[in-house]
Amino acid sequence: MxxxxxxxxxxxxxxxxxxxxxxxxxxRMQTVADMVQPGGRVCDIGCDHAFVSIYLVANxxxxxxxxxxxxxxxxxxxxxxxxxxxxxxxxxLRLGDGLDTVKPGETDSIIIAGMGxxxxxxxxxxxxxxxxxxKQLVLQPQSELEHVRRYIHExxxxxxxxxxxxxAGKYYVVMSVDVGESSRxxxxxxxxxxxxNDRNxNDRNxNDRNxNDRNxNDRNxMDATGNDIxxxxxxxxxxxxxxxxxxxxxxxxxxxLLESHSAVLKDYLEDRRRxxxxxxxxxxxxxxxxARKRCLELxxxxxxxxxxxxxx
Length: 312
Hints:
Elements: H1 27-35, E1 40-45, H2 51-58, E2 62-69, H3 72-85, E3 91-95, E4 109-115, H4 117-126, H5 128-131, E5 136-141, H6 145-154, E6 158-167, E7 170-178, H7 181-194, H8 247-253, H9 255-259, H10 263-283, H11 289-311
Helix pairs in contact: 4-6, 6-8, 8-11, 10-11
């Protein structure tokens, strides 16, 4: 007999008795699940009906999941789904607010998806003792993306991956954040890479700390026989090196998305650029101070979009 259909609100998850991996998540939640580092303990804050929690255990991505939600209704449905899947011993369902339901040291990865950016950062701040003992955050803010990226930067954490997607006609961003000890080391490494240096202190061309390259050529661009060397290609990161004016663009649109030349981000920026033309045109006919102020803000956004499109 096959596994029964899992209860859901707007979603539907099915599985058969031959392959438990046949769990269909929305593209948004599949992207969230794919970001989770495998082999660890996970807590899913705002788990709703526990679809992601069940998927992670069924696919061997998580050893154990704490599924937590502040709402009694979704928790009741989640409890039924977990029981029908036979995962009561692998998924611990908890009712409570944010990370209040989790103790420090209980989880390696923390998922917070489908909430506003300010709420997400509030949850992380309130649960800082839990975050400090975790290794990874998987965040999917519904709004205030720039605020979330700035918050991550201020905490000394590091965005290791970021994906943008379109699901049911809406744009979404999912990010993986390193909050462990390695985040500080990675940020230092990243600073070196922006300057063109690798983890060993060698620059982008393989030159050592003394300025000699991997072939023994010296720092003046002369090879071992005294010939001049020309046409050395710059790395991708070299475009961004020592460019402080790019920081706002990174916070607004995501450095990882820009560096990966995200086609979805490009589509979003072009859509937004077209929308701004119409919005500004309408505001220009208004004579109020608020309208003029808003026009200035939107023109600045236009400038940021143009700069971002240049980078993509």
